[in-house]
Each structure stands twice: as structure tokens, then as C-alpha cells.
């Protein structure tokens, strides 16, 4: 029993250390200013710009990057898990407040106030759907506006599948502009770009600030009939910020009207084509457009790795040790009370069948974003191997051993402590080892809900299509899992009694 | 010393004991014998309270064995099973000392008692630091016996203590066991299915069959006046090769 107390005390001490020394984006109760961004490059760049600005006021900003889609960001904002995030007017009216019938900027502003949310004026650029053509083809055919397409019925169009189906997509576009083209197919966006290069496709749908506009030398056709709704970039922030940090609101307003479409396209292509870090891009923009010199807190690769390692360890250590503390007693209970045991084993078994991604997402409505929901999901996920191994360890104790312990006159508590627990120690340790390896791997998903860790690098790598970045997250995660495994194997020497590790004499 | 009164025990469909009455006299070796499955182990388990009687009662030194008092009664009994009863995670020394430590004996007192027991059971003292897997079958049984004797119990219960041993080792340990019983003068209940072993240890033998006491007496009485034909068959079935050869040559 002493050894078990020692394990548990150890775990607690480790956790307290980690919790003190790694005060990362995990607690939602600190008085910092939290900025969120969606999981695409433009949003991350805008998030970085805001972060730099907030920092220039002397506040401590935290940027929760690539948190997810519109719903996740919006919910986090109204719950106060983040204070600020960049959004688009079209998204607010068509998606967030869909059905409330808000269209004008003033409508939107009024509607948002009900939620305690404020909106800046437009930052300048409009990131809407648009129709793009190769510059040289458009020039040759003298096409400037979408209505010019009417003169060229033989052109071939390749549209993303989403655009083929959207409310403001191809079917309505064709009707509004009375377009005659027949050869129109739905295909993957990347293929569409390639088709454009080869000349098998002449026009595609595109976001108007897409980085590839420059790369592929595209001309954006003017929406002369005003078909596409405006997706003006704005910044949303909680109204309590006006009291809490009025100077932050003031600097946010400095961005109004300051980012032009071409500037945004440039920044997007720096990030996704030239792999310039978003922080650097944001800093360059601020010094160029607002003459605001900010220290670009560019992290070294090692520094970043260290930070993500810290975040990852934090998630794993807390969730795993909580799981150990809870599941060993659950395993013992299951072994001692068969009826209750069926319920316990059944329940932890069912938890394990929930896909880890789904489990994480289920946590968002309950616990919001960040560390706590990720830790809770990881905790639940780590239960089964330990509970089951503890349980089977008890089942595997030979009846003669149980009988001998009982016949000696040891009361039940002493039998557990002196005989049964030492005998199942190996099995319990094996369960913990399995849990640790699963936990380290699953924790990479924590980045999806803003908990950081190695998953953040993987996520960014996927967004930027940057294999090296993905590996910078995946390889350390794999190494950490291996280290955990080796550590728990080494622990056998301390926690499994020597008599159980010996081979029988022949 | 021990009184078993009208005790029955049923396991699911199997009736292990049919209303048994048995009195175990103090300071003597009582031998229970019978075929496998006749209920011998069940009687020992009832006495030490590992199982509860479905009807009837077991009295130990005048106290009824019930779950409430069984823990303290067990400390006055020593129990040795056929094999595999030693705790594999503890050395021989720690196996023997476990209960005394739990009861708060001082280290010196434990050491003293262990030396005494090692000498009594002819167990080599260097073997005390070994783990059960590092001991031979005979040595393991000596450790089991030491563990049973550690608290100087009033009664020793031995369930086929020699059953898993090779014949030579078995013969050695038999002699040692008998010497120990005589030296200690304790009440002993020994279970066996071997008639020669039964005669070696006890003057009075209790023969069980299908959960009933069939006959109680000396070997002579079993041969001269068997309770029924089964008694004769049981004895004949176990005669040694030497007996058989001797009869043929006559
Ligand atoms: N735990 C148990 N569950 C079911 N049946 C049992 C159990 N223990 C013993 N029995 C049955 O009770 C009968 C007597 O068993 P036991 O006392 O162990 O016999 P013996 O020791 O004479 O070989 C046997 O038929 C055995 O199968
Ligand atoms: Mg038996």
C-alpha cells in the first residue's frame, strides 16, 4: 500500500509542478485578453494582427489559433472563453444570425448587442466568393466583369462542389447573369486550379482574397450585378471589453478600413506559399500600414517545440494521473462486487467505443474550449485499460492464494494491501502503460479544441500543407509515447515485487 | 476441541456434505480419508470458516464458528494446503512472518520464532530469503507448515499436505511431520486419500464417502468389520505392490 501511496503522491507533485510552471492557454479564469481564430490562414493572420495590437497596449494577449469553425468561435466568444475574433459580415448574417433576417450593418450591430457582442467597422477587404480566370485569357477575350461572360458561351467552368450547391452558388449565378455556358462541372478545388493552368477549364470559383490568385495569375471578375453577398471583414469582441480594457477596443478600431483586398491577398500568400510565420506577417503589416512597431515574438523551432511539449505533458500528466487515481479503485470494486463490476466495466467500455474526436467535441458544450474539456476527454479515454487490467489481475489471483490469505486470519483490508494489490501490480502497471500510450497519441487531438500541444503543429502543418511542420508535431508525439512506455517498463522494477519477476528455478 | 454437529453443505447442484457429525479430540491426530470429491476439504474449510454450513454448526473450543468471530478463531488455527498456497511476492521468511508482523510482533520476536520453526521443520536457514519459485516442492511445504505454526495455534489443519510431492521427498516429510506432531502435542486434522499415509499418522481413521462418515476406527477394524463392501474395496484398491507380491507368492 505504501508503494501505491507513493505513486499517487508522486503524480500529484508532478502535476502541481506542471500546473505552476506551464501557465499556458489552458485556464479560462486568468485576466488575459484571449483572441481566437478560425482554422484557415487568413483568420490566423488577422488573429496575429489583433494579438500584436493588444500587446502594444501593455495587456497580455493569448492567441488561441485555429480553434475550429464559425460555431466553435462564436460559442467561445459568447461564453467568454475568448474575447475577440475576426469574422465576416456575410457569415454573421447568413450563418450565425441566420433566420433573424438581419442584413444591413446596422441590423447586424443591433442583433449582436443582444448577445453582448460588439463589432468594429469593416477592416476594408471583402472576402467573398468570386469568379476567377487566368489573367492572359481574360485579357485576350476582353473579360472584366461577370456579365462579359455572356459573350463567350463556349467557355468551360469548373466549380468547387460547395459552390455548385450553395444558395449564392452556380444555379442562381447563372440565372441572375443569364449565363449560357453548358460545360460546367463540379470538382475539387485543387483540380480546378490545375485545369485552369492546362487550359481545360477557363473559369473557377474562388475566395476573393485567396493566396493563389497571385500565384496562378488570376483575374477576379467584377460582380457587376452585385450577386454575391458581402463578406466584409470585421472584428467581433465582447462588450465587457469596453469596461475591462477600453484601450484594447481603441486599438482594434485602428484597423478599420486599413486592410485592402490586395494587401490581404499578399499576406495570405506570404503565409501559405512562402511559409512566412503569421506573427511576422502581422508585425510587418502593422509597421507598414499603422506605423506601429511591434516586437515580432518569433519563436525559435526549439522554443516552440518546448512550449508544445509543455502543453502536451500538461494534458497527459493531469488526465492520466486522475485516471490512475480513479480507475484502480474502480477496478478493485469491479473485482470485489460482481454486480457493480458489470456496470463499471460496461460503462468504461462504452466510453472507449466513442471515437476520440467525437468525445472531444461532446466536451465543448459541457466545458467549453481549451485545457479542461481536453483533459476530461483524455481522462475518460484512459480509464478502460487500467480498470480492466486491475479487474483481470484480481480475477487471475489463484484461489489457493486467496484462501491462504483468508485462512491466516487477515481481515479483508489487510488482504488487499498485503497480498492482492502486490500480486496485481504488474497487471495494473501494464494497464497504465497502455493508457499512457493511448493518452499521448489522443492528446494531439486536443489542439482541435484549443488545448495546444503537439497537435497544434500538426494542425498548422495541415492548414499550410507543410509536411515539415506536421512532422515537427507527429515525431515528438511518437517519441513521447515511446518514452512513456519505456518509463513504465522501468517502473516494474520498483512496483512489481521481486518474487513475481523471477523465473521459476528449473 | 472441535465439534461438528449436523452440518450440511451444498454447492449449487452438488451436495458436498450430508448432515455430518464429527468430534475432533484435543492433542491427537485425526485423519480424514476418502476418495476425491467426498467432502474432506469442505470439512476443513468449514472449521476455518472459509465456507459457511447450510445447516448445523461447527464449534471450536466451545465457540460457534460464525463470520463475526471467524477472524480471531483463524489465528488459533494453522492451515496447510496441498500446493500453491505460498504468496509468490514474499520471501519464505516474509511468508511465515506476515501475520505476526500484522499483529505487531517485534522483529526480534519474529526472528526468534522463525529460527525455532526452521529448526523444528528442518528447513535450511539460507532458504528463508528465497522466494517460493526458488524453492523445491518439499521446501515449499515446510515453509507452509512454518507459516501455519507461526502463531503457535491450538489446531493444525492439513489438506493433503504431501499430495503433490515425489515419493522420496514425500517419505522424508512424512517422517518429519509425524515427529513434529508428536513434539508439539497439538490437535491435528490431516486429510489424505492414501490409506498407508492415514495409518502412518493416525490411530483412528475417519473414512468419508459422498459427504457422509462411513466408518471411524483403526485399520484393523476396517479390515475385520467393514461397515459395508465399499470399505473393503477402498482398502484393497490401495494395497502396495509389496503386499500384492507377498500375497501372490504365498
Ligand atoms: N466451490 C465449489 N463450488 C462447487 N462445487 C464445489 C466447490 N467446492 C467443492 N465442490 C464440490 O463439493 C464436493 C466436495 O468437494 P471437496 O470437499 O473439495 O472434496 P475432497 O476434498 O474430498 O476432494 C465435490 O463434488 C466438489 O466438486
Ligand atoms: Mg480436497
Reported CATH architecture of chain B = 3-Layer(aba) Sandwich
Number of strands of chain A: 10
What amount of the residues of chain A lies in strands?
Answer: 5-15%
Total domain count of chain A = 3
Order of the strands making up the biggest sheet of chain B: 6-7-8-3-9-10
The CATH topology annotation of the largest domain in chain A reads as MetI-like fold
Whole-number average pLDDT of chain B?
90
Count of DSSP helices of chain B? 10
Q: How would you sum up the global shape of chain B?
A: globular
CATH class of the largest domain in chain A: Mainly Alpha
Largest Cβ-defined interface = A-B, 25 and 27 residues
What percentage of residues of chain A falls in helices of 4 or more residues?
55-70%
Q: How many domains would you count in the coordinates of chain B?
A: 1
Report the top-level CATH class of chain B. Alpha Beta
Query: What do we call the CATH homologous superfamily of chain B?
Result: P-loop containing nucleotide triphosphate hydrolases
Task: Report on this structure.
The complex is a heterodimer of chains A (506) and B (250). Chain A is an alpha/beta fold. Chain A has three domains: 2-23 and 301-501, Orthogonal Bundle (MetI-like fold); 31-126 and 231-289, Periplasmic binding protein-like II (D-Maltodextrin-Binding Protein, domain 2, 3-Layer(aba) Sandwich), CATH 3.40.190.10; 129-220, D-Maltodextrin-Binding Protein, domain 2. In chain A, 60% of the residues lie in helices and 9% in strands. Chain A has helices at residues 2-21, 41-56, 70-79, 89-96, 105-113, 135-141, 161-165, 170-177, 189-198, 212-215, 241-244, 246-253, 261-272, 278-289, 301-336, 338-353, 356-367, 371-395, 399-407, 412-442, 454-463, 467-495, 498-501, and strands at residues 33-38, 61-68, 84-88, 117-119, 129-134, 157-159, 184-186, 203-207, 218-220, 233-238. In chain A, strand 1, helix 2 and strand 2 form a beta-alpha-beta unit. In chain A, helix 16 (338-353) packs across helix 18 and helix 18 packs across helix 20 (412-442). Chain B is of the alpha/beta class and 250 residues long. Helices cover 40% and strands 24% of the residues of chain B. Chain B contains ten helices and ten strands. In chain B, helix 6 links the parallel strand 7 and strand 8 (187-192). In chain B, 40% of the residues are buried. Chains A and B meet through helix 19, helix 20 and helix 23 of A and helix 2 and helix 3 of B. The complex binds adenosine-5'-diphosphate (ADP) and magnesium ion. Magnesium ion binds next to helix 1 of chain B.
Amino acid at each position: 500500500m505504501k508503494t501505491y501511496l507513493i505513486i499517487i503522491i508522486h503524480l500529484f507533485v508532478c502535476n502541481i509542478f506542471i500546473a505552476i510552471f506551464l501557465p499556458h492557454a489552458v485556464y479560462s479564469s486568468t485576466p488575459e485578453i484571449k483572441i481566437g481564430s478560425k482554422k484557415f490562414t487568413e483568420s490566423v493572420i488577422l488573429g496575429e494582427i489583433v494579438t500584436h495590437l493588444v500587446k502594444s497596449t501593455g495587456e497580455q494577449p493569448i492567441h488561441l489559433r485555429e480553434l475550429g469553425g464559425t460555431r466553435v468561435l462564436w460559442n467561445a466568444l459568447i461564453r467568454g472563453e475568448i474575447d475577440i475574433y475576426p469574422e465576416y459580415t456575410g457569415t454573421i448574417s447568413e450563418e450565425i444570425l441566420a433566420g433573424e433576417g438581419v442584413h444591413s450593418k446596422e441590423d447586424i450591430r443591433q442583433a449582436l448587442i443582444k448577445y453582448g457582442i460588439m463589432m468594429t467597422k469593416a477592416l476594408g477587404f471583402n472576402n467573398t466568393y468570386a469568379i476567377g480566370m487566368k489573367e492572359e485569357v481574360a485579357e485576350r477575350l476582353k473579360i472584366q466583369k461577370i456579365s462579359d461572360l455572356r459573350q463567350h458561351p463556349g467557355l468551360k467552368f469548373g466549380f468547387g462542389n460547395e459552390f455548385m450547391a450553395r444558395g449564392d452558388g452556380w444555379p442562381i449565378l447563372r440565372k441572375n447573369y443569364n449565363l449560357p455556358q453548358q460545360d460546367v462541372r463540379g470538382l475539387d478545388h485543387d483540380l480546378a486550379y490545375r485545369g485552369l493552368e492546362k487550359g481545360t477549364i477557363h473559369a473557377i470559383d474562388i475566395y476573393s482574397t485567396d493566396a493563389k490568385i497571385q500565384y496562378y495569375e488570376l483575374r477576379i471578375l467584377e460582380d457587376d450585378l452585385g450577386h454575391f453577398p458581402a463578406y466584409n471583414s470585421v472584428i467581433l469582441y465582447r462588450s465587457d471589453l469596453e469596461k475591462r480594457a477600453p484601450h484594447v477596443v481603441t486599438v482594434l478600431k485602428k484597423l478599420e478600413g486599413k486592410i485592402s483586398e490586395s494587401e490581404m491577398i499578399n499576406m495570405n500568400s506570404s503565409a501559405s506559399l512562402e511559409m512566412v510565420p503569421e506573427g511576422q506577417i502581422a508585425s510587418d503589416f502593422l509597421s507598414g500600414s499603422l506605423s506601429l512597431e511591434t516586437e515580432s515574438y518569433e519563436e525559435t523551432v526549439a522554443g516552440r517545440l518546448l512550449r508544445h511539449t509543455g502543453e502536451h505533458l500538461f494534458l497527459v500528466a493531469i488526465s492520466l494521473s486522475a485516471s490512475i487515481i480513479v480507475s484502480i479503485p474502480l477496478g478493485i470494486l469491479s473485482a470485489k462486487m460482481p454486480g457493480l463490476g458489470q456496470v463499471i466495466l460496461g460503462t468504461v467500455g462504452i466510453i472507449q467505443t466513442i471515437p476520440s474526436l467525437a468525445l472531444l467535441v461532446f466536451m465543448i458544450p459541457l466545458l467549453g474550449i481549451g485545457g479542461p474539456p481536453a483533459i476530461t476527454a483524455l481522462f475518460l479515454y484512459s480509464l478502460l485499460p487500467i480498470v480492466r487490467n486491475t479487474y483481470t489481475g484480481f480475477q487471475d489471483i489463484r484461489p489457493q492464494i486467496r484462501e491462504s490469505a483468508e485462512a491466516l486470519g487477515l481481515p479483508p483490508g489487510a488482504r488487499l494491501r498485503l497480498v492482492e494489490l502486490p500480486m496485481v501490480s504488474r497487471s495494473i502497471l501494464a494497464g497504465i502503460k497502455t493508457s499512457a500510450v493511448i493518452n499521448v497519441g489522443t492528446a494531439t487531438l486536443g489542439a482541435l479544441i484549443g488545448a495546444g500541444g503537439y497537435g497544434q503543429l500538426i494542425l498548422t502543418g495541415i492548414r499550410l500543407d507543410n509536411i515539415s511542420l506536421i512532422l515537427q508535431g507527429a515525431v515528438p508525439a511518437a517519441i513521447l509515447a515511446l518514452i512513456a512506455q519505456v518509463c513504465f517498463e522501468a517502473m516494474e522494477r520498483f512496483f512489481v515485487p521481486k518474487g513475481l519477476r523471477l523465473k521459476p528455478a528449473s | 476441541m472441535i465439534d461438528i454437529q449436523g452440518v450440511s453443505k451444498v454447492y449449487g447442484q452438488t451436495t458436498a456434505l450430508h448432515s455430518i457429525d464429527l468430534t475432533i479430540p484435543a492433542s491427537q491426530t485425526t485423519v480424514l480419508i476418502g476418495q476425491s470429491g467426498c467432502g474432506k476439504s469442505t470439512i476443513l474449510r468449514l472449521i476455518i470458516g472459509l465456507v459457511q454450513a447450510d445447516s448445523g454448526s461447527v464449534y471450536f473450543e466451545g465457540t460457534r464458528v460464525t463470520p463475526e468471530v471467524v477472524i480471531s478463531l483463524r489465528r488459533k488455527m494453522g492451515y496447510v494446503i496441498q500446493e500453491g498456497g505460498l504468496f509468490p511476492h514474499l520471501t519464505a521468511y516474509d511468508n511465515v512472518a506476515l501475520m505476526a508482523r500484522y499483529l505487531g510482533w517485534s522483529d526480534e520476536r519474529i526472528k526468534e520464532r522463525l529460527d525455532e520453526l526452521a529448526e523444528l521443520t528442518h528447513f535450511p536457514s539460507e532458504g528463508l530469503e528465497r522466494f517460493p519459485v526458488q524453492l523445491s516442492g518439499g521446501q515449499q511445504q515446510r515453509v507452509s507448515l512454518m507459516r501455519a505454526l507461526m502463531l503457535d495455534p491450538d489446531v493444525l489443519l492439513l489438506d493433503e499436505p504431501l499430495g503433490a510431492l515425489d515419493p522420496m521427498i514425500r517419505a522424508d516429510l512424512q517422517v518429519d511431520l509425524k515427529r513434529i506432531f508428536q513434539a508439539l502435542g497439538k490437535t491435528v486434522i490431516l486429510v489424505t486419500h492414501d490409506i498407508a499415509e492415514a495409518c502412518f499418522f493416525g490411530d483412528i481413521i475417519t473414512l468419508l464417502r459422498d459427504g457422509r462418515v462411513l466408518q471411524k476406527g483403526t485399520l484393523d477394524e476396517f479390515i475385520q468389520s467393514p461397515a459395508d463392501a465399499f470399505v473393503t474395496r477402498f482398502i484393497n484398491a490401495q494395497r502396495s505392490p509389496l503386499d500384492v507380491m507377498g500375497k501372490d507368492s504365498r
